[in-house]
Amino acid sequence: MEEGRAERRRRTEALSHPQGGTRRAGVMTDVHRRFLQLLMTHGVLEEWDVRRLQKHCYRVHDRTGAVEELEDFINNINSVLESLYIEIKKGATEDDGRPVYALVNLATTSVSKMASDFAENELDLFRKALELIIDSDTGFASSTNILNLVDQLKGKKMRKKEAEQVLQKFVQNKWLIEKEGEFTLHSRAILEMEQYIRETYPDAVKICNICHSLLIQGQSCETCGIRMHLPCVAKYFQPSLEPRCPHCNDYWPHEIPEVFDPEKEREAGPSKVSKRSLRSRQH
Amino acid sequence: MRTLSCTDSDEGARSQDEGSPSSSNGAEVLRRDPLNKKVVLLVQFLLQKYKKREPITKADMLKFVIKRYKYHFNEILKRASEHMELAFGVDLKEVDPVRHCYTLVNKLDLTFDGTMHEEENMPKTGLLMIVLGVIFMKGSCAPEEEVWEVLNMMGVYAERKHFIYGEPKKVITQDLVQLKYLEYRQLHGDPPRYEFLWGPRARAEITSKRKLEVNATILGAFPSHYEKALREEEESLWNRCSQSGIYCNG
């Protein structure tokens, strides 16, 4: 089966599931397949939509069946996808902690997952924006700063006007978020590219002190410099009256956001009220 | 975090026992199976093509994915198709054995029991079918307002995000137009108005039987003049298919 000589490379597999060595073999039915197809079409979905989607898939393919608990449902699918290096990953929006799900491809560690949708110069524009975002203190890169880099792009020459539209395309396709003329990474990009970002920018990358995941937006301690995601801040400081830095114990100077409550969200109705932007700027 | 090195040097890739993607015992047999990596990459490639509804050729697969392993193409393709079917319910079918063109067919639509009454029971292609149905009923083109009238009845609105279709307005005026299933034309006059027509790809791909199914559920009944129009359309479609050599499954 092999062609030529191949080097044997030993790899250890990190077992990421709680049951230790054993792994329940997943059973895929058309309910799961339809769910997967639809999730794939959307790219990324918030948990509320994911639950509706799951129920829809049951209604189409298995009206009488009991709707499986979402976490088990997804673990089931993931166990079948494991051998394909694809995974349904759960994350949270960085500004207000809404849970989101994306179908993530673990096999390609680069921005090339966007490659089929964008031209070479567009991908390079994204890379430039990504670098500015990662290097920034706030997690945001201004439109001006990004556009000033158009002359350095690989591929076909791009004018600033065109670049503005490409940035909008990134927003529409949920790779970037725009707020007041500045851009940051969409939760989809964070989920899909975390590995790539950590490997490519090991020195510039910021990590949350609480959850140890990639951090783009967050709050930081003014004394020791550790950083935390806004939803991580909310959860960590929720019970305490006097918030103190978990690392250096100094007083935590920033406004503590509220923990995301899906029940409150549902009461507000499907027309989403504009989210409070709790981006705290560091100067 | 699991990674899969993407270099082309194809050293002994870590793999799992083919056919049992998740073995139930802790000890996994690590065999040298470099084909497995290619299978994984081919699945990724096919998924991209499926999402974008682009045609798939053997030439592309060899060039972008298989590369050095071209003598194992059939084996790799077979394994990738099995994964696609098992995990995604998507079938890889060869449509042109001479030029080696393939297409990906959604198996799930075939098992769909067709109760299209409620808003939530429509698959994504259902949106296209509804629009095509409205156009077909009007003749050859339908004004945009009428299309929205029908969609609104099914709980799909232009200015509201839909939990399956996303942005319906974008889907029907841009995405489906780009994919050549629909045409979106501006009419003369002010303020600007638009109409929809069947796109070339819809004409080639949609069989008359499927049209009948869709329209039956929209209308709920067959007025006799409508039946006659359908029959004529079916004949002309069959003639066009035979002439252009496109295989029509009725």
Automatic annotation (TrEMBL), chain A:
* Keyword hit for Zinc-finger: yes
**Any idea of its EC number?**
2.3.2.27
Enzyme group, top EC level? transferase
What's in the GO CC field? Answer: chromosome, centromeric region; chromosome, telomeric region; mitotic spindle pole; nucleoplasm; Smc5-Smc6 complex
Query: What protein name is recorded for this chain?
Result: Non-structural maintenance of chromosomes element 1 homolog
Gene Ontology biological process terms in this record:
double-strand break repair via homologous recombination
Q: Report the main location listed first in the record.
A: nucleus
UniProtKB/TrEMBL annotation, chain B:
Entry's Gene Ontology BP terms: negative regulation of transcription by RNA polymerase II
Output a single Gene Ontology CC term carried by this record.
nucleus
The name of this protein is MAGE domain-containing protein
Q: What InterPro entries does UniProt report for this protein, alphabetically?
A: MAGE, MAGE_WH1, MAGE_WH2, MHD_dom
Using the record's annotation, list all stretches that form the MAGE domain: 35-233
Q: For the region Disordered, what residue ranges are annotated?
A: 1-29
